């Protein structure tokens, strides 16, 4: 805490005698930095140059009087918090009220017959000013610290977003591999067939033409798969309208080979034909991919005779609801509250990162203003996404 005797005090009075009197009293008390001026105008100049802690202001002055000077200081960004003690010969209520209304903090009566009143008011006002200053300083530091923390958090989130992308990228490559297996096989057969027909001397224009076309079609399909998967990682900068139904269909068509390979049946039940919302399509597809991949993981682990995922789409006037349910036995109750935490995973090292659901929650709730929740039923987990129309 600053020493109050080091405060800078400015006394404004049109009488030199008064100035001298007040200054002497304050100096006797131990105040070290006192400036005296004879008019409001001079006071303004002083305020400009110095960081004044307290102004003792005479009310009755020619030109600019104390009330006006008070108002001026209160309307000025730099001076509005400097305490003012008005000194007035009149103690009638009207003058006092005017002074306080103009922004004075306290008053002293003139003539000053003893120094008790002056000293106690100056001391109290300065103490108040000093605590206000340290409070301001504190809140400024706090502000800075809050900003720093926010920045750190933002950075952490970006990092997680990046990691989550990397993780789903890995999953994606697995999915692409499955999706490619069939057209790749078909291409291999076509190539072998050309070889065979050539050896037999049966390779004519027609065969070449047909095989080329077939091959190009397969290659197109394969590159389409890549494009579709890349779409997941597109960073949408602005929200745009899309049909939830179409996005689910797209995601499922990309995953069908991989689901089939794992013996998982997937049903998509559409209970509404109005499922258009505004949001980030790429990010939303990532959420679907995360949730379906989790279901796939648990079903693979459980090795059931009939694994299944069921996606139910419904809506009312305001909300589109997507429920993704599997029959993998559900999330154990002991951990159900933790699965949306970053890095929470029950999978062995290298298989899980624990950021899929955390990121999904951020995307749905923070970025798209919706809700993502989990519950179990007697067969397995049900993830529910609610999005406002
Ligand atoms: N459908 C589900 N059934 C059972 N447990 C699940 C399911 N989905 C997610 N979980 C649990 O939630 C955890 C966190 O999931 P996630 O954030 O996607 O991370 P990761 O898949 O890398 O483990 C999983 O490790 C798993 O224990
Ligand atoms: Mg996951």
Characterization of the model:
The chain has 389 residues and is an alpha/beta fold. It folds into two domains: 4-113, 3-Layer(aba) Sandwich (Rossmann fold); 225-388, 2-Layer Sandwich (Heat Shock Protein 90), CATH 3.30.565. The chain contains nine helices and twelve strands. Strand 11 (371-376) and strand 12 form a beta hairpin. Helix 5 runs antiparallel to helix 6 (205-232), helix 5 crosses helix 7 and helix 8 (281-302) packs antiparallel against helix 9 (356-367). The longest helix is centred in the middle third of the chain and has 85 residues, at 115-199. The two termini are 56 Å apart. The model has no long low-confidence stretch (mean pLDDT 90). Residues 290, 293-294, 356 line the site of magnesium ion.
Give a short overview:
The chain has 9 helices and 12 strands.
List the helices and strands and how they pair.
Elements: E1 8-12, H1 16-29, E2 33-37, H2 40-49, E3 54-58, H3 66-75, E4 84-88, H4 93-102, E5 106-109, H5 115-199, H6 205-232, E6 240-243, H7 244-261, E7 264-270, E8 276-279, H8 281-302, E9 307-315, E10 319-326, H9 356-367, E11 371-376, E12 381-388
Parallel strand pairs: 1-2, 1-3, 3-4, 4-5, 7-9
Antiparallel strand pairs: 6-8, 9-10, 10-12, 11-12
């Amino acid at each position: 805490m600053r020493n109050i005797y080091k405060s800078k005090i400015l006394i404004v009075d049109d009488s030199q005698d008064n100035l001298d009197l007040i200054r002497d009293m304050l100096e006797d008390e131990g105040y070290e930095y006192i400036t005296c001026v004879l008019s409001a105008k001079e006071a303004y100049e002083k305020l400009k140059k110095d960081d004044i802690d307290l102004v003792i202001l005479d009310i009755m002055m020619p030109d600019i009087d104390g009330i006006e000077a008070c108002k001026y200081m209160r309307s000025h960004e730099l001076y509005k918090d400097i305490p003012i003690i008005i000194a007035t010969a009149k103690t009638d209520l009207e003058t006092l009220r005017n002074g306080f209304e103009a922004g004075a903090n306290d008053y002293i009566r003139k003539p000053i017959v003893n120094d008790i009143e002056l000293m106690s008011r100056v001391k109290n006002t300065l103490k108040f000013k000093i605590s206000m200053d340290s409070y301001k300083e504190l809140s400024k530091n706090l502000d800075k610290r809050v900003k720093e923390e926010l920045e750190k958090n933002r950075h952490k989130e970006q990092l997680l977003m990046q990691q989550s992308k990397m993780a789903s990228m890995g999953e994606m490559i697995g999915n692409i591999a499955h999706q490619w297996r069939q057209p790749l096989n078909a291409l291999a057969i076509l190539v072998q067939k050309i070889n065979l027909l050539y050896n037999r001397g049966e390779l004519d224009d027609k065969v070449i033409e047909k095989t080329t076309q077939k091959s190009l079609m397969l290659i197109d399909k394969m590159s389409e798969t890549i494009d579709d998967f890349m779409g997941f990682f597109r960073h949408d900068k602005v929200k745009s309208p899309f049909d939830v139904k179409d996005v689910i269909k797209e995601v499922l068509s990309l995953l069908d080979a991989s689901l089939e390979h794992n013996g998982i049946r997937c049903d998509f039940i559409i209970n509404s034909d109005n499922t258009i919302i505004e949001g980030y399509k790429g990010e939303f597809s990532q959420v679907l991919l995360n949730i379906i991949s989790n279901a796939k993981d648990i079903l693979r682990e459980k090795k059931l005779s009939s694994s299944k995922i069921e996606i139910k789409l419904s809506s009312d006037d305001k909300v589109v609801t997507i429920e993704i349910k599997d029959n993998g036995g559900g999330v154990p109750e002991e951990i159900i509250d933790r699965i949306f935490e970053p890095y929470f995973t029950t999978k062995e090292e290298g298989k899980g990162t624990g950021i899929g659901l955390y990121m999904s929650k951020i995307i749905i709730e923070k970025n798209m203003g919706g809700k993502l929740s989990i519950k179990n039923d007697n067969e397995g987990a049900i993830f529910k996404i609610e999005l406002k129309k």
